[in-house]
Write a structure and sequence with these properties.
- The protein is of the alpha+beta class and 144 residues long.
- The chain has one domain.
- Helices cover 18% and strands 33% of the residues.
- It has a 5-stranded antiparallel β-sheet with strand order 2-1-3-4-5, with no helix packed on it.
- The chain is globular.
Length: 144
């Protein structure tokens, strides 16, 4: 298999809290940040089509956490992963959030999980304080 034929799956979520002050304003800002993403982007793609669009009003079915989920299938995105992460962090800088998680599933090197946590109670748009950690797991394959 050559590099171009390898499929990578990227998925995860950005979490914010309904219990923090300014809930509808926070949701409006987060909604605008996702809607500001292009519908199609240069490689590697980070576009609004891969994200759920947050509502401004809290639905009765929601509990305490706003969850913006996302996912996409790519061709060997791990070779451009630093660029993808840079674009994702640009999005995070423009949003309110408590934590964010990205899972990268690759055919050759297993699954990598990245977690961003706000330095304080939450991250505010424009603040640069983000902490990220990465965990890597690889499932063994049995050759026959």
């Amino acid at each position: 298999m050559i590099q171009g034929d390898q499929e990578s799956i990227v998925y995860g979520c950005i979490k914010d809290s309904n219990s923090l002050a300014g809930g509808s304003e926070r949701r409006r800002v987060n909604r605008e940040a996702v809607l500001a993403l292009p519908s199609a982007d240069e490689w590697p793609f980070l576009c609004r089509d891969m994200f759920s669009i947050p509502t401004i009003k809290v639905k009765q079915s929601q509990y305490q956490t706003d969850v913006i989920h996302f996912g996409a299938s790519y061709r060997a995105v791990e070779y451009e992963w630093n660029h993808w992460i840079q674009k994702f962090e640009e999005l995070l800088r423009s949003m309110y959030w408590v934590s964010a998680t990205v899972h990268l599933e690759t055919e050759l090197s297993g699954t990598h999980s990245f977690t961003w946590e706000a330095a304080g109670l939450y991250h505010e748009p424009g603040c640069g304080d983000m902490q990220v950690r990465c965990e890597w797991t690889q499932e063994g394959r049995v050759s026959v």
